[in-house]
Specification:
269 residues; mainly alpha; ADP-ribosylglycohydrolase fold; 15 helices
Length: 269
C-alpha cells in the first residue's frame, strides 16, 4: 500500500494534465499527498485496529478536509447522513490496496474490498473496481505472473486490459469512473518494466493522474516486491507524522516492505 501512496504523491502535480512523455521529473517541490493517500491510510487503519471502515474513513477524512475530495464524497464526509450514495467513481478502487496485503485468501479479499467500497460506492461498478484492485494486489504479492493478473482482471471482472500505452495516451480526458480508471491503471502496471516505470506509465496518460498512478503503484509494489527505497523515502517525507506513523504501523504488521527510517529528514527534490 506504500506503492499506492507513492503513485498518489508522484501523480499529484500532474492531475488534470494532458497526456505527456514519461521522462518528467519524478518529484516536484509541490508533490504532495491527496485524498488517495488519506483514504488508503483510513482503510489500512480500520483493518489494523479492527474498527468499522466507514467510521475510519470519516475520521481520517475529517482530519484532512482539504485533501482534494470529490463533491459527492465531501458531502458524505462532512454531512450527518452516513448512507452510501451509489457511486461508481474510482474512489473505491484508489483506497483499497491495504486489503490485498492484510488478507491471504481471495474470498476474504473480495469480501473486505466490498465492505470498504459499499460505505460510499455501493454501485456494482464501484464495488467491482475495489475488488479488482485488491484481488490484483493479493495475487501479485503471492507471485502470480502478469499474464495471470491480466486474466483475473479480464475473466473475473470483465476489464479490457488489452489496450496499448499509446492508445491510452491518445484517449486523453478525465475519467473518474472505476470502469475507465481500473483497466487503464492495470495496463500501466502490466506494461511496465519496474515500479517506477509503472507509475510513469500511469502519469503519462494525463487526466486523473494521481489516482491512475495510485492504483498502478499498488499493483506494481505487490508484483515487484517493494517500492524502491529511494522513492519510498522521498514519498514518505510528504505526509505528516500522523499519516506516516499509521503507514509504518500497518507495514510492520502485515509485512509490507518498508525502507529504514521512513520519512526521516526533510527537504524535497
Amino acid at each position: 500500500m506504500i506503492g499506492a501512496i507513492a503513485g498518489d504523491v508522484i501523480g499529484s502535480v500532474h492531475e488534470g494534465a494532458r497526456p505527456k512523455a514519461k521522462d518528467f521529473p519524478l518529484f516536484d517541490p509541490d508533490s504532495t499527498f491527496t485524498d488517495d493517500t488519506v483514504l488508503t491510510v483510513a482503510v489500512a487503519s480500520a483493518i489494523r485496529m479492527g474498527t468499522d471502515v466507514g467510521a475510519a474513513i470519516r475520521l481520517w477524512g475529517r482530519r484532512y478536509p482539504d485533501a482534494g475530495y470529490g463533491d459527492w464524497f465531501r458531502d458524505w464526509l462532512l454531512g450527518e447522513d452516513a448512507a452510501p450514495y451509489n457511486s461508481f467513481g474510482n474512489g473505491s478502487a484508489m483506497r483499497v490496496a491495504a486489503i490485498g496485503w492484510a488478507f491471504d485468501g481471495l474470498d476474504d479479499v473480495l469480501r473486505e474490498a466490498e465492505r470498504s467500497a459499499e460505505v460510499t460506492h455501493n454501485h456494482p461498478e464501484g464495488i467491482k473496481g475495489a475488488q479488482a484492485v485488491a484481488a490484483a494486489v493479493l495475487i501479485a504479492r503471492r507471485g502470480q505472473t502478469k499474464d495471470q493478473i491480466r486474466a483475473l482482471l479480464s475473466d473475473r471482472f470483465g476489464y479490457d486490459c488489452s489496450m496499448s500505452l499509446s492508445e491510452l495516451q491518445g484517449r486523453g480526458g478525465f475519467d473518474v469512473t472505476c470502469q475507465g480508471t481500473v483497466p487503464a491503471a492495470a495496463v500501466a502496471f502490466l506494461e511496465s518494466t519496474d515500479f517506477e516505470d509503472a507509475v510513469r506509465n500511469a502519469v503519462s496518460f494525463g487526466g486523473d493522474a494521481d489516482t491512475l498512478a495510485c492504483i498502478a503503484g499498488a499493483m506494481a509494489e505487490a508484483h515487484y516486491g517493494e517500492v524502491p527505497p529511494g522513492i519510498q523515502a522521498e514519498v514518505l517525507r510528504r505526509p505528516d507524522a500522523t499519516l506516516r506513523d499509521e503507514v509504518t504501523a500497518f507495514a510492520r504488521a502485515y509485512g509490507v516492505p518498508l525502507a529504514e527510517d521512513p520519512g526521516a529528514g526533510k527537504g524535497e527534490v
